[in-house]
Specification:
TIM Barrel, 46% helix, 238 residues, 10 helices, EC 2.6.99.2, eight-stranded parallel β-barrel, binds 1-deoxy-D-xylulose-5-phosphate, alpha/beta, binds the ligand NCC(=O)COP(=O)(O)O, globular
Length: 238
């Protein structure tokens, strides 16, 4: 079985647009879990444009499933994760001003750095995962860092799938086979959606977890529209 961890960044984006508490991030995180999701993912960014650091602390009491915090392990981030002690930390090499994540780690070049920071999280009983591009060299490098899991960066797959190029799954399958051999757990994320998730899962042996945010929240808006509009029309009809 592959666990679904819902990334709630976009709910915070909407909340922050008006400065109040609508939508209520904590309530929605609770409901998402009640609706069956097996995890909650957040990716606080240094400018706090969506998830705020305070949200990360507040969610600790709300997340009763798997709590996954993603981000670049700079000082503030690392300190926060060590205080919160989520189920899993996913390390992503984002630039401070990145619009969204756009690359995995160079696990060869940054092996010593990753080794050190991963050991620190593991000493604190936090499972580790590192965000990687689907290349065999990066998977081999990941195994040498001591990480528990990798997260396959799926944007390229998602883009190509939309264009009808199903061959784009190949490097992901090869990396998954190698990761399984090397004893690494496999997560995946970025631009996964209702359209591409089934095909992706079918082709990745032992896919443990996917974290999905942008598409899932967009799909929820779209599929929720009819019900909500009907609700308004009913109240306005007399
Ligand atoms: C790590 C990753 O794949 C990102 O997709 C992510 O966690 C989303 O971040 P944003 O919501 O800030 O785009
Ligand atoms: N780790 C990926 C993630 O949490 C969500 O990415 P996206 O679905 O918002 O692209």
């Amino acid at each position: 079985m592959t666990k679904l961890s819902v990334n709630i960044n976009k709910i915070a984006t909407l909340r922050n647009a008006r400065g109040g508490n609508v939508p209520d991030l904590l309530k929605m995180a609770k409901d998402i879990q009640n609706f069956g999701a097996q995890g909650i993912t957040i990716h606080p960014r240094p400018d706090e444009r969506h998830i705020r650091y305070q949200d990360a602390y507040d969610l600790k009491a709300i997340v009763t499933t798997e709590y996954n915090i993603e981000g670049n392990p700079m000082d503030n981030f690392t300190k926060m994760v060590l205080q919160i002690k989520p189920t899993q930390v996913t390390l992503v090499p984002d630039a401070v001003d990145a619009i969204t994540s756009n690359a995995g780690w160079d696990t060869v070049k940054h092996k010593d750095y990753l080794k050190e920071i991963i050991a620190e999280f593991k000493r604190n009983d936090i499972r580790t995962s590192i965000f990687v591009d689907p290349t065999l060299k990066m998977i081999e490098g990941a195994a040498e860092t001591g990480t528990d899991r990798i997260e396959l960066y799926t944007e390229e797959f998602a883009d190509q799938f939309t264009l009808g190029n199903k061959e784009a799954i190949k490097p992901y399958t090869e990396c998954a086979i190698l990761a399984n051999k090397l004893g690494l757990g496999i997560n995946a994320g970025h631009d996964l959606s209702l359209d591409n998730i089934e095909f992706f899962k079918e082709n990745i042996p032992n896919l443990l977890e996917v974290s999905i945010g942008h598409a899932l929240i967009s799909e929820s808006l779209y599929y929720g529209l009819e019900k909500v509009i009907a609700g308004y029309l009913k109240k306005l009809s007399s």
